[in-house]
Amino acid sequence: MEKALTNGDLKNLAHDSISVTIYSYEGKSSCFFGNSFTDRDVTTNYGGINYTIPAWSFSILPDCSKKFITPSSQHSTFVKKGNEAEANPSLKWTWRDETIERIIPVVNLSTNDDPILSKDLTLSVNTTGHVVHAFVNREAIGYIHAYLGEFEVQFHQSITLQPGNNEITLLSATVGLDVLKRNYGPNFDMINQGIHGPVQIIASSNGSADIIKDLSNNQWVYKAGLHGEDKQIYNGRARYNQWKSDNLPVNKPFVWFKTTFDAPPGTDPVVVDLMGLGKGHAWVNGHSLGRYWPSYSAPGEGCSAECDYRGPYKPEKCRTNCGNPSQRWVPCALLANTDNRLVLFEEFGGNPFLVTFQTVAVGSICANAREGHTLELSCQGQRAISNIKFASFGDPKGICEYPFATAASQSFEKGTCKAAGALSIIQKLCVGKYSCSIDVSEQILGPTGCTGDTRRLAVEAIC
To answer: What is the mean pLDDT of the chain?
Structure first.
């Protein structure tokens, strides 16, 4: 099939209200059937055999005859377990500050008579970056980040300046490019991201007009990246490992944390739960795991218990995880059995004592298949199917839509017609096995008594 897809000739046909795409190569062919109707299945006869293509889907005949592959119908609910390799699950952390490098002063208050010293001072920064941090005389004074859909952000923070030279340092961070300014195509260099100004100090007091010092034209210097990234301290290089074990800071921005841990036993995937931290970057054994941002939650509205992808695509379709952090779980790979090193750069401030390692395994699986197709069930990681929680062949009700659903969102109910012995038949076919296949037909599962043309099998299994 692969050679036919990559090297073969392509032919498109219209056949019985469906589209048929045929790839042919060296006498072998592969066929794709597409049903663009959003409200009904279509049954077609191709090569003397009847095939039913579900609404708004495609199905595959790898050899253009007999064996029929419908869209994947199995969805999984994952469960997480603590790290059994750690006798004491509390990690032991060391830490160090990110170095804020000294630069030339951008504000010079030459005398004690400078008129702004006697007023309340506010630093104002205009930016198109997603995050901006501000430091005055190498001390963090605050940050602001944009929310979804925002492209212009203004930072305001009260500050205190001293007579003489003062340093103002601004750190701008972006998380991708702004969608409305186009994140594909040419002219990336023309997309403005970052601090565009003005940068101002606003001095105000009751009863008098504001005095504004515009710093935009002052002499600024810049560099890309962090000091710790430049020195690659996440690799554990001794020269730059000025790590401290006492007075571990909590909720302090711009801090590096480091700990070691043993890998959980078994072959299940491992994740690090970073709930309790703010925003930052994680490394394991010197390898980047990517960014995390558990303090930023998805909007609380817009999710639905039901999911239907039929019809034109919209971003609002099948939203999940509303009101929850979108970057909390970070997958870990490249682990040794013992003495693995986790390094975090915490940008906003958080509590590393809340970080835990967990394994992820399939807890349950659910699947749908229509009559005339084959339903396949499989538990990952050499885990056997231990029980069939639900099985009904006929017109069962309910959903099985979210690939990473919660247990509550995957629920079935028996319909008005059903095969009485379907549950026991599927239990015999599947329980105790790593995987099983079920031909969905009345010959295998028994008569349903349904009067309609389309019958469906719905199954939920426990791994």
So the answer is: 81
